[in-house]
Write a structure and sequence with these properties.
7 strands, about 160 residues, alpha+beta
């Protein structure tokens, strides 16, 4: 295992625990979440939502956390499922910060030729720009890549 990442433990299926050098505990959870997609696409299926939680109130910046999360995402995408969806929670009004961080991590990732990212927005109020951005990431090498992208954008022939 790379020394620039933390060891992780899969506590339950699709639930990963990461303990940092500062003893902060992160849980990366993959949950099936079809209910979010009824407004976007009736045909979407086998979609996993990513939920990242830290036991600490204000986590310290830690490059190894980012590297570990990216490594887990690649492992899950390449070996277990074909696509993931990331929704930025805005219950604490920090969704835009989460989106910027997610974009930065993706842009810094050296696997962009294998992992594709798409963004889809749904606005409840065009005037106030009250929008929910849904990020879709998929492994281009998986056999049903094109079908999953079509499902995400509801483009069926």
């Amino acid at each position: 295992m790379d020394t620039k990442i933390y060891k992780w433990n899969e506590k339950e299926e699709y639930t990963f625990e990461i303990i940092t050098d500062n003893f902060e505990v992160y849980n990366l959870i993959f949950k099936t979440k079809d209910r979010h997609f009824t407004d976007f696409c009736q045909e979407c299926r086998d979609v996993y939502e990513i939920d990242l939680r830290c036991s600490c109130f204000k986590p310290k910046r830690d490059e190894k956390v980012k590297n570990t999360i990216i490594e887990i995402l690649k492992e899950v995408l390449s070996n277990r499922c074909d696509s993931l969806v990331y929704l930025c929670d805005d219950s604490d009004f920090r969704a835009s910060c989460r989106e910027l961080l997610f974009d930065k991590w993706y842009d810094e990732n050296d696997e962009q030729e294998q992992i594709e990212k798409f963004v889809k927005s749904r606005c409840t109020d065009e005037e106030t720009q009250d929008c929910l951005n849904m990020y879709f990431i998929a492994d281009k090498n998986r056999e049903n890549y094109e079908g999953n992208v079509d499902d995400f954008f509801c483009e069926h022939t």
